[in-house]
Amino acid sequence: MKRKIGFRLALLGGATFVSLLLLLPSLPVWKDLPGSIRKLLPSGKISLGLDLKGGMSVTLQVDREKAVEGTLQEISTAMKTPSIGPRIQGTTIIFPVASGKDRDTLVKRIRRHYPYLQIQSQDASAVTFSIPPAEEKRIRAHAMTQAMEVIRNRIDQFGVAEPLIERQGKDRIQVELPGINDPERAMSLIGRTARLQFLLVDDKNPDADKILEKKASVPKGDEVFYSHRTGEKGQRVE
């Protein structure tokens, strides 16, 4: 009988000791421990859920079909010229042409910039391109990945230590923000519509450097976009 009690006490003591080791990284005393000791101990903190810490939970839906429509719209905008006014019909894009030469030039441009587009039909007056099913699937999948990345970047503005962002099904994203104090602002920021644009890069303009130095004008139909790079600590490096 005494042996059984001793075994149970030893088991209870061992479980308590392990629990304390796992709990240490979540306690204020953790930062006061010497680095040599912290290296020997588990460093993962205990994540408090919404039931313990409070906060907000929301499920967002990604309009994946809009991503396909947006891709066609960006192609239409990029390929539009004074003589070519494309129009979108479903998952196809129709380019009117005035001659066989214009048609051949158009097909070459499409092949160069959007090689995944397929010719669905063509005649003397128009060429119709479509997005193949495999590319549509890739665009929809990328829309989900991009949406999760955008949400994660927006959540970083709140300084939430351990947010939960996970995919649910084909088009839903579950977001949990423990300890959030301003749910209305969080919702307005997270739920704001994001849109990715695809633009052709004019890398053959001989006046590119002069344009950046504001010594030459931007050609009609072009836009100048500026960006900067950041270091590992978030500082601007250029």
Automatic annotation (TrEMBL):
GO terms for cellular component: plasma membrane. Residues 144-203 form the Protein translocase subunit SecDF P1 domain. Pfam families: Sec_GG, SecD_1st. It comes from the Bacteria. GO terms for biological process: protein transport. Keywords: Cell membrane, Membrane, Protein transport, Translocation, Transmembrane, Transmembrane helix, Transport. This is Protein translocase subunit SecD.
